[in-house]
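Researcher: We're teaching a course module on how sequence relates to structure. For the next exercise, students receive a sequence and then see the predicted structure as tokens, so they can try to spot secondary structure elements on their own. Here is the exercise chain.
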Amino acid sequence: MPDPMVSAVIPAYNGERFLRQAIDSALAQTYPNFEVIVIDDGSTDSTPEILSQYGRNIRVLRQENAGQAAARNLGISRSAGQWIAFLDQDDLWDPCKIETQLSMAQDADALICSDARVIDGAGAVLRARMAPEKAPPSPTLRDLIGSNTVIAVTVLVRRDVVEAVGGFDSLNRLGTEDFQLWLRLAARGCKFRFLKQVLASYRWHGDNISSNRARTATGVIYALNRTRQEYPAAFGRPERWACRHAPGQLEFDRAWHLYIRGNYGEAARSFWRSVELWPFSVKSWLYAIATSLPMRRILLPKVRGLLKAVTREHD
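Model: And here is the predicted structure for the students to work with:
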């Protein structure tokens, strides 16, 4: 048999709750010439039994628990497709995802992605779209640093460019190993294509938002620093400027979520960290000061309202 055109790589770790749905969505693709590879990353639940039920419809690889990046790298190393598609154990593909992306691929494209919806644990739609309305059709390194619009569950990427950068960074276990790979590809000059169609579902099922945001902020800083070390020539003045702003904005977002949940002391500390990361933000300074004062429950909403009013006046 000829080699498949596309290899679907699915890392799985204790994924018994949603894994069947993810695999079934891959097997339901309208594009026929592809393979499904599932990497059991040392699961201790019923994941191995679930995988055994698929027989030859999927290929199963197993390793001691080493994290999602290492699992994906193993899957890529054993795959045969010219294109690699990534699907996490709790996410879903629309049936036409692969076929639509390949039909719109151009010779120069190294990575094709699209928009996705957000669903909850029961599959109900929480958000119809994840990407911003003005997401660029061909995201650049500067675009990715400022606002990452590449959603991992939607990615279809040429295997040769992934191999050229060494795959995912297995040392990154902060949840940003996919973002780091997009940065590395963009730094090498790979062309990205963003499709506005919604072709997948990203599942959110109740993880702690505050702790995730803290971890993500740390992970983003790690990914940016590592990519700058590897590809210093790709980071001109606009990229370096964006590298300073992005972590500060993430820390600000985390601080606001802490504040609205009543964790005022930690919110104040987080707002001050956003000031340290991005000292040019007037908003960060005002929020940090407001949450550090005794009347913070009253002051911060007033500061926020004032900033919104000033912004509207200048629109």
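Model: If you want an answer key for the exercise: Residues 28 and 195 are 21 Å apart (CA to CA). Residues 237-260 form the longest helix (24 residues).
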